[in-house]
Amino acid sequence: MTESERRVAAATGTYRVKRGLADMLKGGVIMDVVTPDEAKVAEDAGAVAVMALERVPSDIRRDGGVARMSDPEMIQGIQAAVTIPVMAKARIGHFAEGQILQALDVDYIDESEVLTPADEAHHIDKWKFNVPFVCGATNLGEALRRISEGACMIRSKGEAGTGNVVEAVRHLRSILGDIRKIGQADSAELYEWAKVLQSPVGLIEEVANTGRLPVPMFCAGGLATPADAALVMQLGAEAVFVGSGIFKSDDPALRAKAIVEATTHFDDPSILAKVSTGLGKSMPGLEIATLETRFDQRGW
Amino acid sequence: MNPRKIGVLGLQGAAREHRDVLERLGQTPVDVRRPEHLFGVDALVIPGGESTTMSMLLESSGLFDPVAGLLADGAPAFGTCAGMILLASEVMDGRPDQRSFSSIDLRVRRNAFGRQLASFEADLEVEGLDTPFRAVFIRAPYVESVGDAVEVLASAQGPDGESHAVLCRAGQVMVSAFHPELTDDSRLHQLWLA
Question: Does the annotation mark B162 as catalytic?
Answer without folding.
Answer: no
